[in-house]
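Open question from group meeting: does this chain pack into something compact, or does most of it stay loose? Before anyone orders reagents, we agreed to write out a predicted structure and look at it together. Recording both the input and the output here so the notebook holds the full record.
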Amino acid sequence: METQSKSNMEQVFRDMRDLKTVSLQEEIKDIELLINKRDILHADIFNDIEAVKTMLKNHEFEAMTNPSADSKQVSEIRKKGIELEELKVQEKLNHWRDVAELKKELREMVKEARDAENKSNILDSLME
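Structure tokens returned:
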């Protein structure tokens, strides 16, 4: 009976360990997915900003070649171009911060997974 109880206890420990390991691995995959999605979002934002900048440059060119164009209008278009450049710089910073934070969290999860694996190995050796 004692052997049966010990075997059941060992199985409970193994199940708990496996559950924790699976949970940590899922969290790691989720963080990696978030990093990838943030990279995609960053690229999309940059592409959108570049498209708007191109459109603004076309409007600026049209305004400059139009003899009846107002210099105030050209100036306003240039101002919008500068604002777009500021948005690009802000997006670069936000992207860097977001990815750095996610990578920090990823490192913590990987460390926790390694620690859990080490503890699991120790427990396995003690149960043998």
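Observations to bring back to the group:
The domain at 2-127 is CATH 1.10.287 (Helix Hairpins).
The first helix runs from residue 2 to 65.
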